[in-house]
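Structure tokens please, single chain.
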Amino acid sequence: MQHQLSVMAEQVAAASIAAEAAFQTDGRTPRLLPAAMAKARTSEAAPGVANTAHALHGAIGVTEEYDLQLFTRRLHEWRLAHGGESHWHRVVGEQVLAAGTTLAEFVRAA
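Here you go.
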């Protein structure tokens, strides 16, 4: 259980850091590339975190009486809103290809 909980915490921390990085901007809206990376990373984390949460609660979280299902249902809806992770991975990939640099240089610049 501790291992599952720590993996879940890792996923949440990685998604949180990606989201925070996307919104570190001077403008009113985030730039496309950081937003795409954040959306892809958070969308990747959502199913694993939800599944682990249900497993840690003994799968009781799928019943109507237990509030966990409300949170995980919303998590899955948000994951698919405005495109799933495959859509945003494609956006990032197009940015990488358009940069015309090596991947290492692209990561350093991004």
